[in-house]
Amino acid sequence: MSRDGPPDGSAPAPSAPSAILHASCVAAQGPEGRWLGALILGPSGSGKSALALDMISRGARLVADDRTALSAGAGGAILAACPAAIAGLIEARGIGILRLPALATAELALVADLSAPSPARLPDAMRFDPPRGAGLPDPGLPRILCAGLPGAGAALLALLRAGGRRHAP
Q1: Which residue in 105, 55, 103, 48 sits closest to 80, CA to CA?
Q2: In a 10 Å sphere around its CB, with 0-12 CB exposed, 13-18 middle and 19+ buried, how is residue 45 labelled?
Q3: Structural domain includes residue 13
Q4: Where is the HPr kinase/phosphorylase C-terminal domain (predicted)?
Q5: Which CATH number characterizes residue 156's domain?
Q6: Cα 135 from Cα 73, distance rounded (Å)
Q7: Which of 9, 50, 80, 113 has its CA 20 to 30 A from that of 23?
């Protein structure tokens, strides 16, 4: 997102979605006050909504649950939004569907992947590859394997608040 976006720090309205993924998305304000999103991927039942709720309980905001629409943003960014029919809704397994305040859109800063555990204590950087043929830019988003990782919600939220950038050892 460019710096001349809306004054509230939110991302500009997305264009028509290029892809809709089976994924959740939450966002937190980064160092410049912009809402930066974490796209949460994983197989059905892997805990995408549970991770999103954990991050929301720590101060993140819901963008989308179950289906996330991705579109190209300014400056090579990828924007995440929620299809209108499920906007503001999130599933809490064993409790039901909850309605929460939600952001209309956020610029993606990282991808949390629940399909596999992290292979190392300090893993090498991995990149998210946008869906082929969707016309999305490739901003080099970090892809973090975090299935079963204790404290993942807190760590991912801290990473968003730091602008999505990890310190390289």
Answers
A1: 105
A2: exposed
A3: no
A4: 21-100
A5: 3.40.50.300
A6: 11
A7: 9
